[in-house]
Amino acid sequence: MYQEGTVEYSSMTRGSYFDRPEFELRYRFIGTDDLTLGLTGGFRNYGYHFKDEHGAKDGSANMQRYKIQPDWDVKLTDDWRFSGWLAMYQFANDLEKTGYADSRVETETGFTWTINDIFSAKINYYLERGFNMDGSRNNGEFATQEIRAYLPVSMGQTTLTPYTRLGLDRWSNWDWQDDPSREGHDFNRLGLLYAYDFNNGLSMTLEYAYEWQNHDEGKNDRFHYAGVGVNYAF
User: Fold this and answer.
1) What is the per-residue pLDDT across 50-68, written as a single tens digit (0 to 9) for each?
2) How far apart are the C-alpha atoms of 177 and 174, rounded to whole Å?
3) For the domain that residue 43 is a member of, what is the CATH number?
């Protein structure tokens, strides 16, 4: 479960926001120390609650996202591993209200260096691209490229992972058929993920992140992210 929205701190009023419950199921085809291959299917629902410039309710939207995602983890040496995932999405319902393109691909892949039993370092390349398979749609296309770095600290059943996301290139065009020009952006994030493994198949995560977004057009944005997750491995 995830929720995101804007807040005007000077008046402590809330703008438009959305709720985002989701469910995922992963099947592991191969699971050894040398090689892991998996496949995840997922469903996510976006429940939008819009407000106008005066803070009054201004309608709603209910959009769905369907996902399929292979993942891999390959042992290169005792200290180095290569891992990643590739997700393919299809969006449906109320796209004209939310402004989403109907299709998207997303991937993150890179290398992990195990320093010792406690510390490790991971650096990944990230790409996300939104596009329309339906040529009649005039919804948002975009692309994002980032470097993502993680520093997991493992302490028994607890893992603390400070991380950062550094923007390489980002552009968007929410009216791409009528206006071919693209707007540039610069997104960067700092975050901390707390994970606890109960050693019975159940685990939980807590996450907080701060993100600053600079835009070629309009005001720059600042976001606070918070999340909680529960996972169970059969």
Assistant:
1) 888 777 888 889 999 999 9
2) 9
3) 2.40.160.40
